[in-house]
Amino acid sequence: MEIKTLSVSQVNSYIKRLLTNDPILFNISIKGEVSNFKLHSSGHMYFTIKDDSSRISCIMFKVNAEKLKRVPSDGMDVIVKGYISLYERDGLYQLYVKEVEAVGLGDLYVKYQGLKTSLEKEGLFDKSKKKALPYIPKKIGIITSPTGAAIRDIISIIKRRFPNVEMYILPVLVQGENAAGSIARAIERCNTLKDIEVLIVGRGGGSIEELWAFNEEVVARAIYNSNIPVVSAVGHETDFTIADFVADVRANTPSAAAELVVPRLVDVIATLRSSNRRLLLAISTKLNKEKEQLNNLKNNYHLRYPLNYIYDEKQHLDDTYHKLCKVMAYNKDRHKEKLQHMVEKLNNLNPLAIFSRGYTIVEDKESNIVKSVEDINQGDLININLIDGRATGKIVNVIKEEKLFGKK
Amino acid sequence: MEKNSYEKAFQRLEEVIDNLENNELTLDDSLQLFQEGIELYRLCNGKLNEAEDKVMMIIEENDKLKEIPYNDLEG
Question: Which of B17, B63, B64, B65 to mutate to test the interface with A (most CBs of A within 10 A)?
Answer without folding.
Answer: B17
